[in-house]
Amino acid sequence: MNPRNHLVFLMISFFTFTLLRSPLVSSQDISFHFSSLSLRNLTLLGDSYLRNGIIGLTRESGVPSSSSGTVIYNTPIPFFDRATNSTASFSTRFSFTVNNVNRESSSFGDGLSFFLSPDDQTLGSPGGYLGLVNSSQLTKNKFIAIEFDTRLDLHFNDPNDNHIGLDIDSLTSIETADCTSIGIDLKSESLITAWIDYWNDGKNLKVFLSDSGYKPTNPLLDVDTDLSGYFQEEMYLGFSASTEGSTETHFIENWSFTSFGIRHPNPRIKNPYNVTDNTVSKNPSIGVPEDDHNKNHHKKIGLAIGILGPVFFCGVLVVFGYISFKKWKGIKTDMNIQAELLTGPKQFSYKELKTATNGFHSSRIIGHGAFGSVYKAYLASSGTTAAVKRSKHSHEGKTEFLAELSIIACLRHKNLVPLQGWCVEKGELLLVYEFMPYGSIDKVLYQDSEHWSFLQWSHRYNIATGLASVLTYLHQECEQQVIHRDIKASNVMLDANFKARLGAICDAVDKRLNNEFDREEVRKLLAVGLSCANPDSEKRPSMRRVFQILNNEAEEIKVPKVKPMLSFSSSLPLSLEDIVSSSDGEEEEDASRMVPEISIDRSIARASI
């Protein structure tokens, strides 16, 4: 057989064999493992935060307080397929601790939960609601959860203050199990590991618990239940916790998850390869005796091939290497960005964004930033409206683009404008954000009069609270601290519910009031604003404290009756009067050279006293 034909035959045979073995229905298995947690794949809601690879779900406070927090895996997981009517099974493992900041205190509660939810906004009220439901609407949120309860709440028929339970759309558990029966105290501050296994074929859920790190032989909770009726096609996974008047804290240290068993139909292959006898050549080779002339001729040919062959091969390698290097240089930037965004925003094509913005027409411009214009875009692929930021063609613009992309892609907060995608093509630097229908605060307050009546006091107060929440996240809770120094109302966006969304990592304060407002909230908001504007930076409250004050979770800061004075410290033997006074001759020049970083106008100094 001709060697070339033999190789082709083997390749076709292997390919056909693979096709014949492929089932018409494939199983989609999904798994992830986090030995250390990061914000690249997780979204934090409420009071949750990340510190040293560990998620804290509730606020750390030495005095009893109320708190609620949630962490959610960013990507929804398939749990049901309508085409094949198949439901997923799953298994998850995680380690957690329940601590008490004030160990001398006996204030505990309320616990934490692992949950599945059809949306990524599951955040309940503080108190005995485990961060799953709101106190005013106990049946609003849909969820499947395993609770780890540390407080006896008779309202939800709890058996004791140290149990686990299966909850479906309600905090009244379908079935519970006492952790004391296996010698585990959820409040012991020990590292506890939980395994949750659901087998859809057997319609059974098991929960194992251990403080040794090894999975026990017998489950603590064993429930025969069919969850297929509660599964949506895609669901989000996460953890939630809450406290009420306690110093209890909840931490998640590691997490792994696997789902399997859901089947997806494969597209049918219309023209599969068929192996026949025609694939193999059957012509036998015929031997012909050679004379000496032919032998010498063949030797010369063989020698030439032996010399030129390697040279040609090396030449091909050089050409191939050069072409590959050129391509590598061309896509290096994209690859670097993609490495930062493996599970983050989508990469759009330039053609799609150009079409979505009508060729970046001037009529689609809805705003201007420091590094380019923002266009309103209609994405045909998803049928949604988005905002496309187009950076200017400059080195500075590209640097800002890459910096903003790498930072924002890792940030997750309900009050941050979500980054949906990006594009680097044809010399263009493009970012795609969620579209905020009411624009920025400055437009609603000062330009767009038709929306003025909608911005009632309740909206205004919620905006201030939301801004304090996101600034707390940026300053203290996110893995990479973000401090932005471009504070203005035009960068605070409003969604359809008049919730504040922070654009370009910045913050603003709403100063105008409506005729209808809560006087106590106005007083509180003004007091907070004055405290934040204190000339002495040491006396300004942190954003976490501001957020707690606005949510009635901390005492207000007392505002001094007399306006604080500006103070300056210097190692130089100069008084304030020496610095601001103007004298003639070289004395003035010498003083200005000694303290070039200090320049104070007399009028400003007087106005500040």
From TrEMBL:
One of its GO terms (cellular component) is membrane. Residues 1-27 form the signal peptide. It is a single-pass type I membrane protein. GO terms for molecular function: ATP binding; carbohydrate binding; protein serine/threonine kinase activity. Residues 360-609 form the Protein kinase domain. The keyword Disulfide bond does not apply. The chain crosses the membrane at residues 301-325. InterPro entries: ConA-like_dom_sf (IPR013320), Kinase-like_dom_sf (IPR011009), L-type_Lectin-RKs (IPR050528), Legume_lectin_dom (IPR001220), Prot_kinase_dom (IPR000719), Protein_kinase_ATP_BS (IPR017441), Ser-Thr/Tyr_kinase_cat_dom (IPR001245), Ser/Thr_kinase_AS (IPR008271). The keyword Cell wall biogenesis/degradation does not apply. It comes from the Eukaryota. In the N-terminal section; belongs to the leguminous lectin family. In the C-terminal section; belongs to the protein kinase superfamily. Ser/Thr protein kinase family. This is Concanavalin A-like lectin/glucanase superfamily. It comes from Cynara cardunculus var. scolymus.
